[in-house]
């Protein structure tokens, strides 16, 4: 299990880089995944993997592939956030226009954030 072309320390460095590449396999971007594969190649080429490394790489690669397949089965793009955009709905703290008090149904004049009839305010509500 000794490297023919380089010392064990160099192989350890390559292993560290390869492990970093393993994490890149879980990235969303395919270019990042490809970069992860590229990072793994030097370690795979310079010396034969130990049994532990085979298990580490094998399990991680299988997990990465499973994640990709899992993502594909539910669509090409995973929903990062559910952000229903409603630009027409005024914000609760929008005091630029007269509003209707939610407590007494009275009218709140523009520029005020507090109902003059019952004292209800946006801050408290
Ligand atoms: Zn009111």
UniProtKB/TrEMBL annotation:
<keyword id="KW-0472">Membrane</keyword>
<keyword id="KW-0812">Transmembrane</keyword>
<protein>
    <recommendedName>
        <fullName>Zinc ribbon domain-containing protein</fullName>
    </recommendedName>
</protein>
<keyword id="KW-1133">Transmembrane helix</keyword>
<feature type="transmembrane region" description="Helical">
    <location>
        <begin position="13"/>
        <end position="32"/>
    </location>
</feature>
<feature type="transmembrane region" description="Helical">
    <location>
        <begin position="44"/>
        <end position="70"/>
    </location>
</feature>
């Amino acid at each position: 299990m000794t490297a023919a072309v380089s010392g064990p320390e160099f192989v350890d460095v390559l292993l560290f880089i390869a492990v970093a590449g393993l994490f890149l396999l879980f990235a969303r971007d395919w270019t990042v995944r490809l970069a992860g594969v590229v990072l793994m190649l030097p370690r795979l080429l310079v010396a034969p993997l130990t049994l532990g490394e085979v298990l580490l790489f094998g399990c991680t690669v299988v997990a990465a592939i499973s994640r990709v397949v899992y993502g594909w089965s539910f669509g090409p793009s995973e929903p990062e956030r559910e952000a229903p955009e409603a630009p027409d709905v005024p914000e609760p703290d929008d005091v630029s226009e007269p509003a209707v008090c939610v407590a007494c149904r009275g009218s709140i004049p523009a520029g005020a954030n507090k109902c003059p009839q019952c004292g209800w305010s946006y801050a408290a509500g």
